[in-house]
Write a structure and sequence with these properties.
With about 70 residues, the protein is an all-alpha fold. It contains 4 helices and no strands. It starts with a helix and ends with a helix. About 10% of the residues are buried.
Length: about 70
């Protein structure tokens, strides 16, 4: 999967818009915009780290919701 598609997929999986995503992960807005427009490419390790973090945060949130029920 190319960088453009992957970063957009990761961002959308969080339910955040671009501004929120950038603020949360402390990535400059222009950088993410350039990645999503396919003008620049994020290093592969950045994509892997973002994916790992998002997956584990989602799992954490789901576990917390299950405990409160």
């Amino acid at each position: 999967m190319d960088c453009k598609t992957k970063i957009k997929e990761l961002r959308e999986s969080t339910g955040m818009n671009r501004k929120e995503f950038c603020k949360y992960f402390q990535i400059p807005y222009r950088t993410v915009t350039e990645w999503e427009l396919d003008n620049r490419h994020a290093p592969e390790y950045v994509l892997r780290l973002l994916e790992y973090y998002i997956q584990h945060e989602i799992i954490k949130k789901e576990n917390m919701e299950d405990e409160s029920v």
